[in-house]
Amino acid sequence: MTKIDATAKESLVKLERNVRTEISDLKLNLKRKSEKKNSAKQKLKRSSSESKLRYNESVSTDLTNSGLFKSKSYRLIDDNSLIKTYLKNQTPIRLYNSVPAQHMPPLHITNQDEVKKKFIDHKIPPVLKFKADERSLQNILSKHSKTNYEHFFKAKNILDTVKLKYPNLINYYEANFGQKITSIKCVDLIGKYLSENKISGDLTISFAPGLTCSGRITSYMVNKNDPSTRKFSIWINDGEENQFLRKDGIISLCDHEIGTHYFRSYNDGLQIWFNERKKFGLRPTNSTDLLQTEEGLAALNTLVNANLKYLFLPALLYYMACMADRMTFEQLYNHMENYIEIPEERWKLVTRVKRGISDPYKIGSYSRDQSYFHGAIDILQNLDNVDFMTLMSGKICLDECDRIKRIARTNSIKIPKFMKNMQSYKEKLRTIGIINGIIEPRPNEKFKKGTIVFEKNPGELKQNESKNPKELFGKNFKDSSLTSIEIKRYINREIVSKTKNTVEHRPEVTDNNSSLCIII
C-alpha cells in the first residue's frame, strides 16, 4: 500500500467516525425532545394506586379553547390524560380517584360508604370507623369536646330566616352559588382566579372525591428553616355532595381557601415571628383562638362575592354542634330534616359534627366547626376597630393585631383582589353583619337590594332616628342571649317534644335588651 492510499484510508476512517458521532448526537437530541414533550406526563405520575390520575376518554379538547390557556405558556391538552397539563405559569392540576392515604386527616371515616347505605336505606345506626386509633381519637376529642352555646339563637334565627325564604335547600344553593358545573369548568374558573390575584403557579390544585370538607389548603416545607421553600396545594372535593362546585360557588370557595387561608399562611412566612411565635407572645398555630379568627374571617370572605349574604353554613354547623351535644346520631339526623331535606347532605353534615364518636348511641359533638360562626361574629362586632392589613399579615388572632402591628411587615404581603379597596370590603362585611342580625344599623342607613344606602336628606334622617330599627328594616326575629344552662334546657324540651311525637307550644324566648334581628 502506497503512502497516498494510506492517507486516503485514514481520511475515510475519520469521516466515518464523524458521521457516526453526528448520527448519535441527532438520536440523542431527538430523544431529549421527546422526553421534553412528555415531561408534564412524567412529572404527574404516581406510583401509589390510590394516587393514580383519573382517565377520561369522553372529555373533548374544548378546554383548550378556554381563556385559561390563552397565554404564552399555552399547552395542548392530551385527550387521553385530561388534566395532565399545566395552567398558566405551570400550575399543576391533578384529578384523583380517591383521597391519597397521606392526605387523609385523622378523623377521616374509613367505612363511610358501607354504613351510609345501611343507615339511609334500613335505619341501622352507623358505627363509624376512623383513620386514627382510639388513643389519638381521645386526644383530638378532648380538645374540641366543649360545645359553645353563646350564639345558639343567633344561629337558629339565621336558619329559620333562610328556611322561610327558601323552603327547598337546593333552591337556596342555586340562588347563592348558581348552577352545578363540572370539574373541568372549575379548572378554568380557578385558573382565572389565580391570574386575577397574580398568584399563578403558586399552588398545586388537586380534585379528589371523599374529602371531609369542601376544600382545604395544605403546605409543606422543603427546608424547615427557609419559609421560601414552602409548597402550597388547594384540595377540592369534587364529589356530588360538594355544593360549592357551582358557577359562583367555586369563586366563593376560592375566596375562603385561597383568599384567606393561603394568603395568611404565605404572609406568615414573611414575618420575623414565623419560627418564633412564643418569643413574640403569639398563640400556637393550633390554638382554638387562632382557629376562630382564621375560620371566622374565611367564613366572611366566602360571602363577599356570593349572591346571598346569609351566614347559613357557619350557623348550621354551630347549631348542629349544640344539638349534637344533647342528641344521638339518629336523633340529630331526624331533627335536622327540618332544615336539610336532602338525605345525602344531611348525612354529610351529621357525620361532620359527630366526627371521632364511634358509638351511634352516644351524645356529644365535635365542636371544632363552631369556630366559623363564632369567629365571624367576633370580627363583625369589632369591625370598626379591626386592622385587616395587619390581620392578613400572618397567622395571628384578632386580639393580637394591636400588639403585633408595629413589627408586622405589611409592605411586602399579598392580599386578595377583593381586599384591594378596603373601604368597599368593610362595607360588604357591614352589610353581612346587618343582614344576619349581628350588627345594629345606624340611623342613617337603609338596606336596599343587598347593599347599604346612606340617606342624605336631613329631614328623612331625623324621621328615621325616631324609628325602632326593627320597624325601619322590617325585621321578623329577635336575638336572644341566655345562659348555656337555659339553652340546654330549651334543647332538652325540644328533644322530649320530638321523642313523644307531640306538638308542644315552644316557649317564647325574648331579650328585652336587644332589638337586633335578621333581614329577609
UniProtKB/TrEMBL annotation:
Top-level taxon in the UniProt lineage: Eukaryota
Record's keyword terms, sorted: Hydrolase, Metalloprotease, Protease
Pfam family, one: MATCAP
GO terms classed as biological process: proteolysis
Basic residues bias (residue ranges): 32-46
Region annotation (Disordered) ranges: 32-56
Keyword Hydrolase listed: yes
Cofactor: Zn(2+)
PANTHER family, A to Z: PTHR31817, PTHR31817:SF5
The name this protein goes by in its record: Uncharacterized protein
Organism name: Brachionus plicatilis (Marine rotifer)
